[in-house]
Amino acid sequence: GEEQYCENGFTGTYNGPVFGGENTYGGYSQTIVVKESFVLQIRHAADDLARVAPLLCAGITTYSPLRHWRVGPGTTVGIVGLGGLGHMGVKIAHALGATVVLFTTSPGKIADGRRLGADEVCVSTDDAQMAAYANRVDFILDTVAVPHDLDAYLSLLKRDGTLALVGAPAAPHPAGNVFNLILKRRRIAGSLIGGIRETQEMLDFCAEHRIVSDIEVIPIDYINVAYDRMLNSDVKYRFVIDMASLRDA
């Protein structure tokens, strides 16, 4: 039930090689043949399908660690970054009943963070705001995909707190201070997407709580512009390709 951690590897379906085998295709096909055990049921309304699509990546990537570390009522959860992953983390943590604190470098995202479900928003470049959360947070989900100082967030955790990384930077994070870990028995952990069982659980949870992704629908011939915009963080918060535009093209 946790295929993503298979020791023999898994089949990448983003036009990626199968761990040394042939490349996989079909991601933008109109029809595809799959094993029944890998089919998921979507219970959202039909007019929500475009907004459901990113749940199969950003949704499960944030849902899995939030569930694994038992986030819920009575816990204070920090979400680092308000992008494609972070905005789903805020929504799901809020629906799980946690007190949600968004940590962002962008003061311009304060209002959006609250709209999406954050109870509090901390501008992480403000030392005084960060210091106010020292030793107060039970669990932090770090969604940022560029190298940054993890010590700043470790110091916010209570004893036995966990900092879980789901953002995947191209270069390593700076080396941290070991005393930030050992003095409070804190942990740095990681999490990778989710298996089929948990992905179905996530879809059902999101349907029940009416959770979808905030998206911008684009035609296929806009894809290069969208990619450049994504690199410049100019999207709220996921691009979704209109498949009809492939046929028209």
Could you list some keywords that capture this structure?
249 residues; alpha/beta; six-stranded parallel β-sheet; two-stranded parallel sheet
Question: Secondary-structure element sequence?
Answer: HHEHEHEHEHEHEHEHEH
The helicity comes to 25-40%
Count of distinct strands: 8
For the sheet with most strands, the description reads: 6 strands, parallel
Broad shape: globular
The N- to C-terminal Cα distance equals 39 Å
The percent range for strand residues is: 15-25%
Q: Which topology of the domain at 56-190 does CATH recognise? A: Rossmann fold
Structural class: alpha/beta
Main CATH class of the domain at 56-190: Alpha Beta
Give a short summary of the structure.
This protein has 249 residues and is an alpha/beta fold. It has helices at residues 49-52, 58-68, 84-95, 110-116, 127-131, 151-154, 179-182, 196-208, 223-231, 244-248; strands at residues 76-80, 99-104, 120-123, 137-142, 157-165, 187-190, 215-218, 238-241.
